[in-house]
# Entry
Amino acid sequence: MMVALRILLALLWFVPAMAAADPLRGTGSLGIVVERATGSVLIVDAMARQQIGRVEGLGDLSHASAVFSADQRYAYVFGRDGGLTKVDLLTASIAKRIVQAGNSIGGAISDDGRLIAVSNYEPGGVRIFSADGLEPVADIAAIGADGKPSKTVGLVDLPGRRFAFALYDAGEIWVADLSAAGEPAVTKLRGVGKLPYDGNVTPDGRHYLAGLFGEDGVVHVDTWQTPLKADRILDRYGRGEEGLPVYKMPHLEGWAAVGDRLLLPAVGRHELIAVDTRSFAEAGRIATHGQPVFAVARPDGRHVWVN
# Structure
């Protein structure tokens, strides 16, 4: 009788504990939606088509971007105020937050998932942090050939624990290699063009492209080449026509990769330019109703959305 009573009491204690426990959940279908006006993010379940959490206190998200950890549990959100926030998607909470600069413009995570890189407007340069605790690892000061500090933009990760980025003011593209211990090994490609404003890398991690805001053209770096060099493509794509006033700078981080084509927003023009990824020559143009800012492909490549 006493044994049965003890078992019953144990079950009565265990059942509420089971009811209170959170259900097990994978992370593959989870994503975030940035609420820029309130400095918060929604955590959404793409399969269930519903919001499952909200995280506040992420600072100025007026130009926010994010990357995800290798295990897809954490989102690293880069704020315009220099904030870097590690968000836990499973607990809907802030795992760690730092303010690493005065004005930030985006970031990337290394291919091994261990490093977070942030590009900065103020004070410029790129800062590297550990993905686990956001401890500082390296500080790359972006001092151009003219000896002046530069804003950094177009930061992407490359295979082999490397990062590529552009120096907006200096007209340069740098590739930082952090595969070895110690200070990063930085390759500097000088004189690539006027005001490289944004960049992206092809899905295979091989081809880095940076748009030029100060002149018509795009800079291409084949990261398999030794030594690295910068080549101009789409040079003077607006030749013979007067450029329009630009009220919103386009973003190459929002290009559309569709099959063997890249669709790039043109600066000061009402069109997308198609680039053949085999030759990196122009392959055509698509007229738009206004100056495109982003071009984003549907996952199956059938449609491209432009804003």
Summary: The radius of gyration is 23 Å.
